[in-house]
Amino acid sequence: MSHYFIRRRGQAHKRRLDGTYRHFPKCSLLIDCASHFILAVEPGRGPAPDQPCVIPTLLAGCARQRIDTLFADAGHDGEWVHKFCRDELDVRSFIPPTIGRPTQKPPTTRYRRAMRAYFRRDPKRRRYGQRWQVETVVSMIKRRLGEVLGARSQRRQNRAIMLRAIVHNILILFDRQLFYRADSSPFSFVLLSSATASG
Hints:
Blueprint: H1 3-12, E1 24-32, E2 38-46, H2 54-64, E3 69-72, H3 79-88, E4 92-94, H4 110-118, H5 133-145, H6 154-174, H7 176-181, E5 189-196
């Protein structure tokens, strides 16, 4: 559990919780917005920046399915991330340009400047709201499979995260209503986000 989690739990219980945890398991998820199917997962350890997970997660997802549009959370913001998505993979990327010191000046780089203009639009004219589908997936995993990892070593925690992602996909496939609605068309809108688990 992170320092932030400990502090928020203490606020919820209106008392100070003793103990802090320097490291915690986390993962980056690439999911399909329509079906909540996990296309790729990159387990890791936090606290750590999310950007290094972009390349392995996207490459794993693109190896399985053609991706048209990516909605990623602000932790993945970076000009090189947009260049990799758009120039190398031909995937349209939408990421809030919030990393860095707050300023009224527009970003100096091409794609982050375009993102600044995009996120100033009326929310009704933006499709970025679909990014919240990843929060639904994280909630589904924690409600169905539990939010605590019993493993202690990083290797076993990573394995547990991967197994939960696999089981999540199996449970979706067993949902007959969703299974029969699915078609063979490629995934159009996917999103990339990071999630944390209690160790």
